[in-house]
Design a protein that fits this description.
Layout (H helix, E strand, L loop, with lengths): L1 E9 L5 H10 L12 E9 L2 E9 L2 H6 L4 H6 L2 E7 L3 H15 L1 H5 L7 E7 L11 H10 L3 E4 L6 H25 L3 H19 L1
Parallel strand pairs: 1-3, 1-4, 4-5, 5-6
Antiparallel strand pairs: 2-3
Bound molecules: guanosine-5'-triphosphate.
The site of guanosine-5'-triphosphate (GTP) has 21 residues, from helix 1.
Protein name: small monomeric GTPase
InterPro entries: P-loop_NTPase, Ras-related_GTPase, Small_GTPase
GO molecular function: G protein activity; GTP binding
Length: 204
């Protein structure tokens, strides 16, 4: 069974819990306790693989206090970064999070391949009070190798589900890439022997 760890990050009140709960229960509840962080568990079967999915939904207060994100970066296999299309400051926050995740020191730490990331412009039902254009979200995502969509946790159950499925699939692709890059024990030993004795033979 594969363990897939996903962190849902973003500014305060952008709808991180709404998206997570929508995906897990197909329901939109409206108000969520926001003073504690949660890790949700779900068993999934995707592409004939059994998965144990863990979704981390932080408490915004603690997230602000520890913007370094060090533990999340080590823990998560992928990130959903959420902003609210009707709140420009939440877009700036999402941008800062993306830069933090993509910055070279971070990418190098423990990661054989780049983390999967999905930028989500939530609250599309509020597009009459939109402050962030679709193109801006799309550009930020393209520039930073993220997937991108706008949706509404309040109104679009299927779109929310598809977004989570897409990032989980990206994470599974990364798992396969990591597996390929890791040389098997016997191959690396053969390479070592070849390097040592092959070179000696040449110099005789
Ligand atoms: N109109 C609209 N409101 C939404 C949507 N998603 C979430 N909300 C509302 O936005 C508010 C914040 O939603 P939460 O899911 O608690 O957001 P959060 O990012 O988890 O919040 P914190 O943990 O406090 O940062 C709530 O009042 C939700 O009902 C949406 O798609 N459309």
């Amino acid at each position: 069974m594969n363990d897939v760890k996903l962190a849902v990050l973003g500014g305060e009140g952008t709808g991180k819990s709404a998206l997570t709960v929508r995906f897990l229960t197909k329901r939109f509840i409206g108000e969520y306790a926001s003073n504690f962080e949660s890790i949700y568990n779900k068993h999934l079967c995707l592409e004939r693989k059994q998965l144990n999915l863990e979704i981390y939904d932080p408490c915004s207060q603690t997230q602000k206090a520890k913007f370094s994100l060090t533990s999340e970066l080590h823990w998560a296999d992928g990130f959903v970064i959420v902003y609210d299309i009707s709140d420009r400051s939440s877009f700036a926050f999402a941008k800062a999070l993306i830069y933090r995740i993509r910055e070279p020191q971070t990418s190098h730490c423990k990661r054989a391949v780049e983390s999967a990331m999905f930028l989500v412009g939530n609250k599309r039902d509020l597009c009459h009070v939109r402050e962030v254009g679709w193109e801006e979200g799309q550009k930020l995502a393209l520039d930073n190798r993220c997937q991108f969509c706008e949706l509404s946790a309040a109104e679009q159950s299927l779109e929310v589900e598809m977004m989570f499925i897409r990032i989980i699939k990206d994470i599974l692709i990364n798992f396969k890439l990591k597996e390929k890059r890791r040389p098997s024990g016997s191959k690396s030993m053969a390479k070592l022997i070849n390097n040592v004795f092959g070179k000696r033979r040449k110099s005789v």
